Structures are given as structure tokens and as C-alpha cells.
Amino acid sequence: AARGSLASCNVSPTEVEEVYMGAVLQAGMGQAPARQVALGAEMGNDTPATTVNKVCASGMKSVMMAAQSIDLGHRQVMVAGGMEAMSKAPHYAYLRQPTPYGEHKMLDAIKSDGLTDVYNSMLM
């Protein structure tokens, strides 16, 4: 998507000075999702890339951070947005601790990391 957006704006990937990408459910995405976007869009290896996690506001926060950087004159060309792969979100099983008897509980990453408020354990 980043490569296509740059092409539609007639911007070369090598002109991009920094990347901010928001992602809520990072489990299963691999390391450094924003870096994956930068390299997938054929930006330079030295292009800074930061993944932002602000739950539901991750993508918008990424855009806000990029806009601030441009407004302050720190950067001129940036890529910012949000990315998610909820269909690939894993289930968790805590298997590093011994279970003397019974079964292991599976947690759905979408529910535990994306939709449940960590402070009151309520679904949002």
C-alpha cells in the first residue's frame, strides 16, 4: 500500500525521510512492522521507521506525529498510517510454566490485546 501511495503521488521511495506506522496487534507480524513497510516499499535501508502502538488510535497517532515533524521543519516527505492483520492474530498458550494437571487455556490475541481494557478487564 505504501509503494502504491507513493507511486500515485509521483514520489520516489528514496525521497521518503521517515516512516511511522501504527499497529495494535503486533503479535505474528514479525519484528519492526514499520521497517517491513519501508523495505517493502523500496525505501533506503537508512530510512528511519517507527511502529506506534496506541491501541485504536495507533494509525491516527502515526499520522499526527508525521504531520508534527513536517510542521516543525524536521522532515519534508514522510509515510504514515496504520496496518493490521486481525485475521492472522494468534492465540496464546502460556506453556513455559508447568501445569501439574488439567488443560492449558488459550487466549485470543484480538480479545486480550485489542478489545479488552487492561485496566478494568471489560470489552471495549
From TrEMBL:
Residues 3-124 form the Thiolase N-terminal domain. GO terms for biological process: fatty acid beta-oxidation. GO terms for molecular function: acetyl-CoA C-acetyltransferase activity. The keyword Acyltransferase applies. This is Thiolase N-terminal domain-containing protein. InterPro entries: Thiolase-like, Thiolase_acyl_enz_int_AS, Thiolase_N. Belongs to the thiolase-like superfamily. Thiolase family. GO terms for cellular component: mitochondrion. The keyword Acyltransferase applies. Keywords: Acyltransferase, Transferase. It comes from Strombidinopsis acuminata. Signal peptide: none annotated.
